């Protein structure tokens, strides 16, 4: 008997079905790949969490990094300022914890603490392997932050560039002018005090000023002192380059004593915010701080009268601060992908595009040497002129936080005013500073 054969009718597979099947397969493959290669997560602590214009811009720049690098998740933990942010990171360090990236923004003590605990990533190998990254780092950064063994543990995205600010109109009206009748900042410290006298005499007639300037400890300790010391003599210049074996030198004594003269022309104030506001309102003729203040000054009613000058010296040479403060610190994670992602973030922040934005939109001095100052001067004349003035100075020094320890700075800042007018206080200050050099370093309670 013949067996019946059953024929199964096969429906033709449509193009749509093939397409849908392929799409599902691709999606499954993609999901599988994402599971195999999840994004690298980084924890980032910084002090740009406020609502002011500069803080908002920095947050935007950080967010744009995340958008441009979808394989990296940047978990930011912002604080309202860098002091709070670094204190938070330092508290974590005490618990043997560290985020992947910390923006110290000049709080260099954290760098020292992380290095001592062996948690900081040595950035030197990454810099040497990447010519583009190396080219984006200012030579002064490498000079200051390269250790004897060649290691580098921090990179800043901006330089600290400082002269001082003055009111051109007040200088002109007080007769502090050149042969053409234009405002002319003093070249020597003797001329500086002559200018202060002229401003006081002018003020007696006009009643315009609260004081020639308004000093508080930030301006005195961080901005004025090393400029005055380095401009005193060659000995003073050497002391300004690093902590000396002893502070009992003529240059140091003369500089401290000379602050009694500087205080004579000052209107006392308890904060740098008040000192800045006096200058903006035209109640003082000078203000001692960095080029970043241009971000605030450009919106003031006196902006056309505000200019930046280099510091005077005994010899008449011009002097400015061109200094790389501590910047980003990276955790040496066991996860090498995290380290590589962190370095990619640093490279992004040092790129010419971001660096130009930082200059034009926040008033910060670029750390990348390839950023064109002419572009800055065209888009932001006040900052561009201030940068040119500082970079053209005949003598350039580092900030005190870059060359002296925090213990030295805190001790010195809390006692300078008393020591400037009293020989016994000065001798005691020198003894205490020298004791730190003899290994008797301890925590100093600062009134600064």
Automatic annotation (TrEMBL):
Keywords: Signal. It comes from Faecalicatena orotica. InterPro entries: Bact_solute-bd_prot1, SBP. PANTHER family: ARABINOSE-BINDING PROTEIN-RELATED, DIACETYLCHITOBIOSE BINDING PROTEIN DASA. Residues 1-27 form the signal peptide. It holds the Pfam family SBP_bac_8. This is Carbohydrate ABC transporter substrate-binding protein (CUT1 family).
């Amino acid at each position: 008997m013949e067996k019946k054969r059953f024929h199964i009718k096969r429906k033709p597979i449509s193009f749509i079905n093939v397409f849908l099947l392929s799409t599902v397969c691709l999606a499954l493959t993609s999901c599988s790949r994402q599971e195999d290669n999840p994004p690298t997560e980084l924890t980032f602590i910084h002090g740009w969490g406020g609502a002011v214009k500069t803080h908002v811009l920095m947050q935007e720049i950080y967010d744009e990094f995340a958008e441009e690098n979808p394989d990296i998740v940047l978990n930011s933990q912002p604080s309202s300022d860098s002091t709070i942010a670094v204190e938070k990171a330092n508290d974590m360090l005490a618990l043997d914890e560290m985020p992947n990236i910390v923006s110290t923004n000049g709080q260099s003590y954290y760098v020292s603490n992380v290095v001592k605990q062996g948690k900081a990533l040595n950035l030197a190998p990454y810099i040497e392997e990447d010519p583009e990254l190396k080219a984006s780092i200012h030579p002064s950064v490498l000079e200051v932050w390269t250790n004897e063994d060649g290691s580098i543990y921090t990179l800043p995205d901006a330089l600290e560039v400082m002269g001082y600010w003055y009111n051109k109109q007040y200088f002109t009206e007080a007769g502090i002018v050149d042969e053409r009748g234009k405002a002319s900042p003093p070249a020597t410290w003797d001329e500086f005090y002559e200018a202060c006298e002229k401003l006081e005499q002018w003020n007696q007639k006009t009643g315009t000023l609260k004081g020639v300037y308004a000093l508080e400890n930030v301006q005195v300790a961080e901005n004025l002192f090393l400029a005055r010391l380095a401009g005193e003599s060659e000995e003073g210049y050497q002391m300004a380059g690093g902590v000396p074996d002893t502070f009992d030198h003529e240059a140091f004594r003369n500089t401290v004593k000379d602050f009694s003269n500087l205080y004579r022309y000052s209107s006392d104030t308890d904060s740098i915010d008040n000192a800045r506001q006096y200058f903006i309102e035209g109640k003082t003729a000078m203000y001692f701080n960095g080029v970043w203040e241009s971000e605030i000054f450009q919106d003031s009613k006196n902006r056309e009268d505000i200019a930046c000058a280099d510091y005077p010296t005994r010899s008449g040479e011009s002097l400015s601060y061109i200094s790389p403060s501590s910047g980003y610190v990276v955790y040496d994670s066991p996860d090498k992908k995290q380290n590589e992602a962190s370095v990619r973030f640093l490279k992004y922040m040092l790129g010419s595009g971001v660096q130009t934005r930082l200059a034009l939109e926040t008033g910060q001095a670029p750390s990348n040497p390839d950023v064109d100052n002419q572009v800055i001067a065209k888009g932001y004349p006040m900052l561009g002129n201030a940068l040119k003035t500082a970079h053209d100075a005949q003598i350039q020094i580092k900030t005190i936080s870059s060359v002296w320890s925090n213990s030295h700075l805190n001790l010195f800042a809390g006692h300078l005013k008393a020591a400037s007018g009293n020989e016994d206080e000065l001798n005691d200050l020198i003894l205490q500073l020298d004791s730190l050099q003899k290994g008797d370093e301890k925590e100093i309670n600062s009134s600064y």
